[in-house]
């Protein structure tokens, strides 16, 4: 990221824990409102508060975020969905891993994966939700 013109596309996939379900923090809501110019949606707040969103923010803080042209050097997309298992994800993997905002549709440079809670529930005979 520190090199001129390099970009990193980060995509998070998994279940509700990866997507940030139930995660709230007032500081994040305030920062998102400043970024978007309006109050963020519940989904925007949830994804920003998720541990994958916090990791992407940490990466941004460690590296220069914008180049001279104003293009974001680190782009983060949270494609996690509550209840999703590895088996649920496989049929949609190719489309889910694309980064919508990337003009040239490059593959993501970093994929954060966590289906473990739902895979465990499925394999242990627990309730799958």
What does this structure look like?
By secondary structure, this protein is α/β, with parallel strands linked by helices. The chain is 40% helix and 13% strand. It has 7 helices and 3 strands, in the order βααααβααβα. The chain has helices at 16-19, 26-36, 42-49, 51-62, 86-89, 93-96, 116-123; strands spanning 8-14, 74-78, 110-114. The chain has a 3-stranded parallel beta sheet with strand order 2-1-3. It is globular and about 45 Å long.
Summarize the structure.
With 129 residues, this protein is an alpha/beta fold. 40% of the residues lie in helices and 13% in strands.
Features:
alpha/beta; 7 helices; 40% helix
Largest sheet composition? 3 strands, parallel
Helix content: 25-40%
> What structural class should be given to the helix and strand makeup?
alpha/beta
CA(first)-CA(last) distance: 38 Å
Helix and strand pattern: EHHHHEHHEH
Strand content: 5-15%
Overall geometry:
globular
Main β-sheet, spatial strand arrangement: 2-1-3
Quaternary organisation of the protein chains: single chain
Low-confidence stretches: 65-69
Mean pLDDT: 75
Radius of gyration: 16 Å
Q: Report the count of strand segments.
A: 3
| Structure annotation, total helices | 7
Topology:
Blueprint: E1 8-14, H1 16-19, H2 26-36, H3 42-49, H4 51-62, E2 74-78, H5 86-89, H6 93-96, E3 110-114, H7 116-123
Parallel strand pairs: 1-2, 1-3
């Amino acid at each position: 990221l520190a090199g001129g013109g390099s970009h990193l596309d980060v995509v998070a996939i998994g279940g509700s824990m990866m997507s940030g379900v139930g995660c709230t923090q007032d500081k994040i809501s305030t920062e998102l409102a400043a970024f978007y110019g309006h109050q963020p949606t519940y989904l925007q707040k949830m994804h920003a508060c998720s541990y994958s969103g916090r990791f992407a923010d940490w990466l941004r803080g460690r590296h220069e975020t914008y180049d001279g042209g104003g293009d974001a050097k680190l782009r983060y997309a949270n494609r996690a969905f509550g209840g999703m298992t590895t088996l649920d994800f496989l049929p949609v993997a190719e489309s889910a891993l694309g980064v919508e905002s990337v003009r040239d549709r490059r593959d993501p440079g970093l994929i954060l994966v966590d289906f473990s809670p739902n895979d465990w529930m499925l394999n242990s005979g627990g309730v799958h939700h």
